[in-house]
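quick one, 565 residues, struct below
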Amino acid sequence: MSKRSLSPAQLPPAKRLHVFGSSRPHAIHILSFENSLYDELILCIFSYLSWFDLCTTQATSRNWARLAADNELWREQYLKVYGRTRLRGAKGFFARLGDRDIKPLPGRAIRAELHKDWKWMFRISSNWRNGRCSVEECLDHSVDPPAPEGHVTTPSNRNEDHTHIILAGALIITASSKPTHLPKMIITTQSNQHHTISCYEKPLQDGPASITALALDQSPPPSGLLSISCFLSTGEFFVFEFNPSSPSHLPTRKYTYQPSRRNFHTFQAVYYHPLLVTVSDIFSLSIFDLSSGNVRLAQTLTSFTSYPPASLVLSASSSILFKLVVAYSIPVYPRHWSVGATELMISKRSESSGLGTSSSSSSFREDYRGSQTSTMVVITTRTIRAFDVPSGFVDQASLRTMREQWGRKLLNVADTQTDGKWVIIAPGPGHHLNTRSNISPSPSSTSPSSSLHSPTGLQLYRLVLPAQSSSVSASPPKLNFVRTLHGHTSPVSSLALADGRCVSLGLNGNIRVWDLEAGTSAEVAPADETMMDGILRPEKGSVSFDERRIVTARSGKVVIRRFDI
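---
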């Protein structure tokens, strides 16, 4: 068999070599900014651009889009614009589920913080600043179970009921304050699945009870489990422990406390294991010690000059020393209100000397102390008030200060919040003392010397607590008025404050985010006023937030607004 002959057609031309040399004198080498510089040089040039210019350069070419998204560039941009290495609004030490980690470019993974997606963090912070978010609406699953036979369920006032909200990582824990025969908490996961934690195994036979407060353990969990305490109107409370990664598993009841005598309702609580602090509606502050495996009432303090609403912030200065900051309402002559704050140092040492006796600690008085085996006791307190009348004769400067304080007093207080550094007090519904308050001030008016305070403006104070010292020249605590925050069109229903950021919920549904350091705000949700029988009926609600979302409960609905979009 003969070999197959070649085709008579001509062979295709040889491929052109992509080389530059003397063998191809006619080849023209076009130099450009992209192929003449190394990536390192381009990244160095990009480091001088702003974040807006970096976003613009990504539309130039694929190579520039890859380089402009470099993690180190966005880390520098984030630190330059926002001045911190984390997202604002985080509380406690529990891990955040669903974080976005990235793999850095080769040769740039020097520090562990480079594994954060700084561009994604910049986008989230920018969404907070501009009020851009996605909205998810779900029903309040705290439905009352049927009452036992022989009991008649009385209807509750809708405006007096509210929903307690706790954010724990990716979980949302809610509980209704409506009286029911089987109080329960609802855990909502990131995939919108709901799990129930019942306070009792069977419905109550002696009458309904309501959940008055919730508190999440802020201490680092040793075994990855979260602990949450639930307080009831009967005076008892429970501490449940559950796994946040699998909330469908049955939680365990870790502690149970039943008071030996009649107690008043707990409306506020903070938990940092092994310390649990509660405040009742008569402003009785109770300190519980959970270090021995059971609940022991260590000390009770009572204040006759402090009133709700109040806010508590508990932190651990060391393994044996805790600091509690309480912000509350104080009465002002003749029938008005202002704000005050108290710092309490709580020690675990058995040789503690008890409550301090200095004149600045006269706000709280010791009412009860447990046995000598109890180690949680208050050792010192310091109190500061935003409105205080000096004794004796005063000069013109002090008189001018008193007049400014007098113009800021309120007829009603809707809410008071603190994060240990800032204090905010919101006026409640009702006419303001100043008759000129009907004039709507400019939203950009943030002058601290302005005497115009509207009934919808939030009063912002700076809380200064210098280190305690026995020296005569030691600086006293200060509560300085900073500015009035204008922007709401109705009185405020609820506040949430953490890490220098405040979220306010109005009675008309308007939600605003405040940057307390810069004094700026952004509207997250417009007013949604409901009409019933032709009459405007504002609805009270509750609000909570973390570094990525805002959760509000109002009119029987729980709404989640996410900023990580």
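The chain has a mean pLDDT of 80.
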